[in-house]
């Protein structure tokens, strides 16, 4: 690459941009302009791609950035957006939790179809226990389809609102949640076909190895 060559163009590839619209090419160019890092018309040997990457990574919508130079005088940017797995709407804030266990702001461009958490949700709970629970839902087709909403009470007791059945599920704490849901799945498979979905108003899972049912 000749030392006096100047940057002719900035080419941006935002991965998954057809599915998710959290970041656009114009957003990225705008960030670089504000930080005085727009490479166009600057000498190629004066452009610091590490600085460009660091600046763009400050954006909470971005998971990964790779910036590199081409011999023809182009700076290429490959950007991966974060993937939201949970939406939090609470008195403590309105944000997404992403697949990396960090938070990302809500976008006016795009609404992700993910489970909704409301109630008294501290950020610390969102990126620890709720994050683990959301990963479990994402990997489990049955529960991902069944759990529509999560409500956190002031004492951190957790309630689940199902998509099918007019009942509430009291989870208690997130301790041993997989075991609790396994018990509930057995209940759904063995008891509900005999009684129907409408018989119970509350299914309480918080006591070890038992489900306490409140009849409607």
Supply database-style keywords.
Cell division protein FtsQ; cell cycle; single chain; 216 residues; 12 strands; 3-stranded mixed β-sheet; 27% helix; alpha/beta
Structure description:
This is Cell division protein FtsQ. Keywords: Cell cycle, Cell division. The protein is α/β, with parallel strands linked by helices. It is 27% helix and 31% strand. It contains seven helices and twelve strands. It has helices at 25-34, 49-57, 123-126, 129-139, 141-146, 177-190, 192-195; strands at 9-15, 62-69, 74-81, 84-90, 93-98, 103-105, 116-119, 147-152, 158-162, 168-172, 200-204, 212-215. The strands form two sheets. The chain has a nine-stranded mixed beta sheet. A hairpin with a 2-residue loop joins strand 4 and strand 5 (93-98). The longest helix is centred in the last third of the chain and has 14 residues, at 177-190. The chain is elongated, with a radius of gyration of 24 Å. The relative contact order is 0.10. The model has no long low-confidence stretch (mean pLDDT 91).
